[in-house]
């Protein structure tokens, strides 16, 4: 058995001879000499008897979803930095640190501002946070940490003598003790600046970093300690005697010719042992990095257990390389001549490749070696551990398997000596398995490549599932509050990709952390969140198709700006008045689009239809107390004045008004405003169950009347959802989630809504989730790609849709990532069990991180949430065919079906389903007088450009809309058709149309309307 490798041994000093009455001093104390070569640590410098090294911590480098040119540039940057270190020894150490669950929990708890109170009998905040931590600790995930030690200089005899005499010199001449550090300061500063550049992105290791590295090296393979030794005296210096904190209590043993070394140590007052197998990289075939292969050191990240790396490299000087390269070229040429001249045979292809490489090297020699052509040699060791020898050998075999066939991994016998190589300052165990190559080859290992996405303070949404497995935490409000970016988020994926599940997970966990959410979920599965016991008292579910008439009044769904929202503007009142005018113009455009969408397609496409609607809408105005019924009344009055086409349009709208769902647009003026109810809800879910939407991608002319109405209702419901943003304090963390948003991109006001949410998300601290089956639907919205912050892309099979999804992710296209989108969430082919596997997404966090992640909601404490979000049908949940298992009348009713009429009760029971039909509010104003001048109601201060003819000019100091805020009410009207009919487009936009102009065109249009009307009726 080898002797203890880590225990320092003590030699007794001779007792000083007594001369006269001299007192015994410290000369009689034993001297501590650790068995490791290290003698002291100061800051990020470590000293042995012969060497001083500066240690740096390398920043994590993203590798996934980058183009080959970006990856090659990274490799070249690393190689250039290594090439600058000619004539120096390097020690590369890759270790792991368990994911800091307690640090995440503290940050998450501190960041959970304004969280809701606990509900008796339900999952409280403390239990929720504890469950999150227990689940996270059970996953046993860790972070990769990469350290690079660079030789600063060799140590002279004088330096070593001063170190030995330091206890005496420290009292007599303290400056002499620090003389070596002072002499090295300039060189250390040069190294600090060199490795800080792009590529390595290294920073000097802190004292805690060095302590962690020493613990992981001296106690190789043992479980990571929960606490580390504190730097003595806070001086960032470890003296020789202080190094015992790393070595005491740890022993290494090896039986002769044993395949592993046994490491025994103390961990929290318990003795723990592990068997460690150390391997060395051998011969390596040509790897095509980055075109085909991943960085060769990153292969070990795929293994489900931690792997330790230790590499010793020497960067060679050009004058040392030239002679060796000349000899190698001579050998290759001699072998080629042996085949061609002596035997008249073609040389083997491998020899031909070497000859080509010789020509490249010769060219490098003649043109001069650059940093990228600098050569090095080194030794790469890999260590894995197990609870016993069998487990360690099994893991070593997995390392061999993950690298074959292109890289050979050798398992040498001298395990004890090889294991000591991992300790900083220790010498090489053997020069066997020396690898030679260029700095480009070494840089292609990219040791710091890892999965980096998300943050360390947000909710846990899953884990990465690429080469590196790491937890993914995401704070949806970090972008708005810290990075001053938008909160726009796209959730894209086909049917069954998990969009609703992901939305529900984000909503639930952020609600627990204090956020407020409004969800528009047409199909309704997310309404189950309002029934969870811990959320029910603070939630409401509104089925819009069963709500009060007028709940989707286009004039009410656009929020009225509040003066307090503009307190930080340079001129608050001016900004507020300007936003009010813009809101009025938005309402007019929304009403125009909605009423046009209600008309049959053949009628709506007639230019004169939009003309008469435009006149009526502008006359009604854009105040929030208007309603579409007033537009119909104005059309009737215009018909009585001789505009026959206005009467035809009014007839069609009256016919649509009689449909049950259309009543949502027309309020009952005898009832009170349903939106004056209590708004102190944390969660509001709006559903439209039973609504039939068109097939995505189908042309407008193929839509049925019910489908066209459904699209308009969805558009209005989306506007209603964002209205809740402006009713709350702008600083509160708010969220809005919209499903089926691909239909919003097909109507102009839907695009305006998306743009408005994107621009206001930062100002009002909103995270807006837009869910769609196709990324192209969102990309069609002008400016969406530039404003989007975070993106989730689920399984997508269509090739065109895959390319558009990558554009949304800002990921290179045409390099093979398209196929990856089709492999997300693989589904079993020959399995009749339900596909309940967690869904996978490509997640772009908005600040550079892009990774494939797996959504995780499998923690035991969230089982009830997982069941609530399960949308898979299951016939076993029904006890009798066609009848729910429960037999009470309440259970037989649909979940959102209103109960039989009951007296109005003003108290709000916990978790009730809110029916706005019973909510009370202010009574709507009476219908406007048809003779009122519309601009006095819509724009009394003349704040909008292009006022009606004859109106007084706006004041010089009145704010005006910017060019990009103009809402063109003409929309898709063909101006050529209008001018051919004798109509002035400018007058039309101003709301002034000569009744005698274009009579022929009008009569021709009327004929088409009558024919269309007969066909429709």
TrEMBL record:
Q: Which InterPro entries match?
A: P-loop_NTPase
Q: What is this protein called?
A: AAA domain-containing protein
Compositionally biased spans, kind Basic and acidic residues: 1003-1017
Q: Where is this region: Disordered?
A: 1-27, 933-961, 997-1017
What domain of life does the UniProt record list for this protein's source? Bacteria
Biased composition of type Basic residues is found at: 8-21
């Amino acid at each position: 058995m080898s002797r203890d490798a880590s225990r320092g041994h003590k030699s007794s000093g001779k007792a000083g001879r007594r001369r006269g009455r001299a007192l015994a001093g410290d000369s009689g104390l034993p001297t501590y000499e650790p068995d490791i070569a290290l003698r002291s640590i100061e800051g990020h410098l470590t000293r042995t008897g012969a060497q001083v090294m500066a240690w740096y911590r390398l920043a994590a480098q993203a590798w996934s979803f980058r183009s080959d040119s970006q990856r090659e540039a990274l490799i070249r940057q690393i190689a250039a930095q290594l090439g600058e270190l000619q004539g120096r020894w390097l020690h590369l150490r890759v270790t792991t640190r368990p994911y800091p669950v307690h640090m995440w929990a503290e940050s998450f708890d501190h960041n959970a501002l304004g969280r809701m109170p606990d509900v008796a009998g339900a999952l409280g905040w403390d239990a929720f946070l504890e469950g999150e931590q227990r689940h996270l600790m059970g996953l046993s995930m860790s972070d990769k940490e990469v350290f690079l030690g660079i030789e600063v200089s060799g140590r002279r005899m004088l330096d070593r003598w001063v170190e030995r005499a330091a206890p005496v010199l420290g009292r007599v001449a303290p400056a002499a003790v620090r003389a070596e550090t002072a002499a090295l300061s300039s060189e250390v500063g040069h190294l600090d600046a060199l490795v800080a550049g792009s590529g390595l992105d290294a920073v000097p290791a802190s004292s805690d970093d060095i302590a962690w590295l020493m613990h992981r090296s001296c106690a190789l393979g043992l479980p990571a300690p929960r606490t580390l030794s504190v730097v003595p005296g806070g001086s960032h210096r470890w003296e020789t005697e202080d190094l015992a904190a790393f070595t005491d209590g740890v022993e290494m043993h090896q039986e002769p010719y044993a395949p592993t070394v046994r490491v025994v140590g103390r961990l929290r007052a318990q003795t723990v042992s592990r068997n460690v197998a150390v391997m060395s990289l051998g011969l390596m075939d040509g790897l095509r990095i980055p075109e085909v292969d991943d960085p060769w050191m990153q292969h070990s990240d795929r293994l489900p257990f931690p792997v330790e790396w230790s590499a010793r490299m020497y960067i060679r000087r050009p004058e040392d390389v030239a002679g060796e390269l000349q000899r190698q070229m001579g050998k290759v040429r001699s072998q080629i001549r042996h085949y061609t001249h002596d035997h008249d045979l073609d040389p083997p292809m491998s020899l031909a490749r070497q000859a080509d490489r010789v020509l490249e090297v010769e060219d490098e020699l003649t043109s001069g070696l650059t940093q990228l052509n600098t050569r090095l040699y080194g030794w790469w060791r890999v260590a894995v551990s197990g609870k016993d020898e069998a487990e360690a050998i099994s893991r070593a075999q997995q390392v061999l398997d993950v690298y074959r066939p292109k890289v050979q991994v050798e398992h040498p016998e001298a395990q004890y000596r090889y294991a000591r190589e991992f300790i900083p300052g220790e010498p090489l165990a053997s020069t066997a398995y020396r690898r030679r190559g260029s700095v480009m080859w070494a840089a292609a290992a990219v040791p710091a490549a890892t999965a980096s996405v998300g943050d360390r303070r947000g909710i846990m949404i899953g884990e990465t599932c690429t080469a590196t497995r790491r937890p993914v935490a995401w704070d949806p409000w970090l972008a708005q509050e810290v990075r001053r970016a938008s909160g726009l988020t796209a959730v894209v994926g086909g049917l069954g990709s998990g969009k609703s599940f992901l939305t529900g997970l984000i909503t639930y966990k952020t609600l627990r952390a204090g956020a407020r959410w409004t969800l528009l979920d047409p199909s309704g599965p997310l309404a189950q969140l309002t029934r969870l016991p811990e959320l029910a008292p603070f939630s409401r579910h509104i089925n819009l198709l069963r709500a009060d008439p007028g709940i989707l009044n286009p004039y009410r769904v656009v929020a009225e700006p509040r003066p307090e929202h503009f307190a930080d503007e340079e001129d608050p009142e001016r900004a507020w008045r300007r936003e009010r005018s813009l809101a009025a113009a938005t309402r007019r455009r929304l009403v125009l689009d909605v009423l046009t969408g209600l008309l049959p397609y053949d009628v709506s496409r007639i230019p004169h239809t939009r003309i008469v609607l435009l006149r009526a809408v502008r006359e009604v105005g854009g105040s929030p107390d208007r309603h579409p019924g007033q537009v119909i009344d104005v059309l009737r009055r215009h018909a009585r004045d001789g505009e026959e086409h206005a009467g035809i349009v009014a007839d069609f709208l009256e016919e649509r008004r009689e449909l049950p769902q259309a009543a949502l647009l027309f309020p009952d003026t005898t009832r009170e405003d349903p939106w004056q109810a209590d708004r102190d809800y944390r969660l509001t879910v709006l559903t439209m169950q039973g609504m039939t939407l068109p097939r995505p991608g189908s042309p407008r002319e193929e839509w049925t009347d019910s489908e066209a109405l459904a699209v308009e209702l969805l558009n209005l419901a989306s506007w209603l959802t964002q209205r809740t943003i402006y009713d709350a304090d702008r600083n509160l963390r708010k969220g809005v989630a919209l499903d089926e948003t691909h239909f919003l991109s097909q109507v102009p006001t839907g695009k305006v809504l998306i743009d408005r949410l994107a621009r206001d998300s930062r100002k009002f601290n909103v995270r807006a989730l837009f869910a769609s089956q196709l990324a192209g639907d969102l990309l069609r919205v002008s400016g969406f790609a530039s404003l989007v912050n975070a993106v989730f892309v689920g399984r997508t099979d269509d090739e065109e849709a895959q390319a558009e999804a990558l554009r949304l992710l800002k990921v290179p296209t045409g390099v093979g990532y398209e196929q990856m989108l089709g492999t997300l969430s693989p589904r079993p082919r020959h399995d009749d069990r339900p596909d309940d596997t967690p869904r996978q997404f490509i997640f772009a966090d908005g600040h550079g991180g892009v990774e494939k992640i797996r959504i995780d909601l499998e923690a035991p404490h969230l089982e009830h949430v997982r069941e609530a979000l399960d949308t898979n049908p299951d016939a076993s949940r029904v006890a009798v065919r066609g009848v729910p298992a429960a037999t009470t009348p309440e259970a037989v009713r649909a979940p959102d079906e209103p109960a039989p009429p009951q007296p109005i009760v003003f108290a709000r029971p916990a978790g009730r389903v809110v029916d706005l039909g019973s909510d009370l509010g202010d009574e709507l104003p009476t219908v406007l007088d048809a003779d009122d001048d519309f601009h006095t109601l819509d724009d009394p201060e003349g704040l909008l450009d292009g006022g009606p003819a004859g109106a007084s000019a706006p004041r010089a100091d009145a704010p005006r809309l910017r060019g990009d805020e103009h809402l063109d009410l003409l929309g898709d009207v063909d101006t050529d058709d209008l001018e051919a009919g004798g109509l002035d487009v400018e007058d039309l936009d101003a709301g002034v149309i000569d009744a005698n102009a274009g009579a022929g065109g009008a009569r021709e249009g009327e004929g088409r309307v009558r024919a269309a009307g007969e066909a429709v009726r």
